[in-house]
Amino acid sequence: MVAALLNRFFKRSSAGHRPIESLEFVSLDVELTGLDDRRDSILSIGAVKMAGGRIALSESFYRLINPNVSFSGPVVTIHGITPSDVKSSEGIETALRDVIDFCGDRIIIGHCIDIDMAFLNREAVKLTGRPLKNQSLDTLAVYKWLLSRHCYKGDVPLNPSLYDIAKRFDIPVDISHNAVMDAFIAAQLLQRFISALCQCGVKYAGDLLRVGNAGCIITRGEISNL
C-alpha cells in the first residue's frame, strides 16, 4: 500500500514538471439556461482537443441537450437555441458520458471555466457519484496574470469577456453564442498565451495550472526556474 501511495505521489509530481508543449488539453464551453447551478441546466456542450499549442480541428465535440427545464427570452437571444431546437435532443446523461470519454485525462480549459465545471461536476456526481477527475485552466485567469506582468499593453476592461480578449488578438468572433465556436476561440487564445507565458518563465504544467487558477495569486518566486 505504501508503495502504491508513493507511486501516485511521484506520478503527480513528475506530471507537474511536464513541459507545456507536451501537454494535452480540451478547450470546452457549455451553454446554460442560467447561472444558478441549483435550478438551471446545460443546453449544449462544445469542445475541441489541443496538443501543446496545436489545435486538432478534426477532433471536436458538439451536442445539443434537452435541459428538461423551461427557458425563453434572454437565453434564446444569447445562445440562439430555442426550446424546439432541443425538444428532441438527448438528455444530459448520454452527452455527459460522451464528453467524459472525449476529454479523457486532458486538462480542460475555457473562459471562466469554473462555471462550466460546476455544472458538469453537478451532473457527473449525479451520474457517477464523483466529479470529473480532470484538472482545469481558466484562460481569463491566464490573461489577467499576463497583464499583471505587463506582457500586453493598452486599456482593458476589468473583467473582459471571451470576445473582448479575442478581438484584441484579432481572432474572428461570430455574433452567435455557439459552444463549439467559443471553445475554439478559447483554444486560439491559449495558443497566443503560450509564447508569452514561456517568456515569463511559465514552462511547465504545474506552473501553468497555478497561473490558470482563478483564485490563485502567483509570485515570481513560485514559478519554476525564475
- Helix content class: 40-55%
| CATH homologous superfamily grouping | Ribonuclease H-like superfamily/Ribonuclease H
Per CATH, the architecture is 2-Layer Sandwich
Along the chain, the helix and strand elements come as HEEEHHHEHEHHHH
Gyration radius from CA atoms, angstroms: 18 Å
Give a count of the beta strands, DSSP E runs of length 2 or more.
5
Structural class: alpha/beta
The fold-level CATH name is Nucleotidyltransferase, domain 5
Low-confidence segments, given as residue ranges, are 5-14, 216-226
Largest sheet: 5 strands, mixed
What coarse outline follows from CA principal-axis ratios? globular
Q: What oligomeric state do the depicted chains represent?
A: single chain
How many separate domains?
Answer: 1
Number of contiguous helices: 9
Model description:
The protein has one domain: Ribonuclease H-like superfamily/Ribonuclease H (Nucleotidyltransferase, domain 5). The radius of gyration is 18 Å and the shape is globular. Strands 3-2-1-4-5 form a five-stranded mixed beta sheet, sandwiched between helices. It has nine helices and five strands, in the order H-E-E-E-H-H-H-E-H-E-H-H-H-H. The chain has helices at 2-16, 74-79, 83-86, 92-103, 113-128, 139-148, 162-168, 179-199, 205-211, and strands at residues 24-32, 42-51, 54-64, 107-110, 136-138. A hairpin with a 2-residue loop joins strand 2 and strand 3. By secondary structure, the protein is an alpha/beta fold. 43% of the residues lie in helices and 16% in strands. Helix 6 (139-148) packs parallel to helix 8 and helix 7 (162-168) crosses helix 8.
